[in-house]
Amino acid sequence: MEQNISEALLFKGLSELLHKKTIDKLSVTDIIKASGVSRATFYRYYTDKYDLLNSNYKKILENTLFRFDEGIPWRDTQYQLYQELKDNLKLFQNAIRSSDVNSLKNYIFTISMDFFLGVLKKNKVDIHDWKVRKKIEACVYGNLEITVIWILEGAEEPIKDLMEVMNAVLPSEFRRYFIPDEQENGDRYSLCSDDCCFV
């Protein structure tokens, strides 16, 4: 309980600061002052400001994209994730602008690879095959770059258009694991558009 409260306060403080400055320009001192949590408490749960940011991004994924593992349709989980990014645009614009090795962008790439390879593994695809890994890596990397551009340019293009572009690079042999046949039929944009590889 105490951990949940402290984590919520820390992320609230970080969120407020990210509406004003990029993550690289913030310090742990700034975050603990904004959150009202002690330095000891901060380091009890996080190694640095990037760990705090990345941990909270993972919580967003757990409420959106990762719900695909619970049987929620892929397009729905994708749309929810992009809507979350768009609803918190200034925060994500300042969070994604980082050159640090522990940056959100690097974290997204790593967690996206794990997620997509996990889906393929569940479907008995040999994820150790070099071609399989490189196809997913290319898909994830390309879609991450497009998403970063979309965020930095103000998320002006509709989410369904963004997702349609991203879906174009999803390797055709893996589509069926993310977009079942029944989603391919009928109104493709009832909630959102086609799917992509970015998480």
UniProtKB/TrEMBL annotation:
It comes from Desulfitobacterium dehalogenans (strain ATCC 51507 / DSM 9161 / JW/IU-DC1). Pfam families: TetR_C_8 (PF14278), TetR_N (PF00440). GO terms for molecular function: DNA binding. Keywords: DNA-binding. The keyword Transmembrane helix does not apply. This is Transcriptional regulator. InterPro entries: Homeodomain-like_sf, HTH-type_Tx_Regulator, HTH_TetR, TetR_C_Firmicutes. Residues 4-64 form the HTH tetR-type domain. It comes from the Bacteria. Residues 27-46 bind DNA.
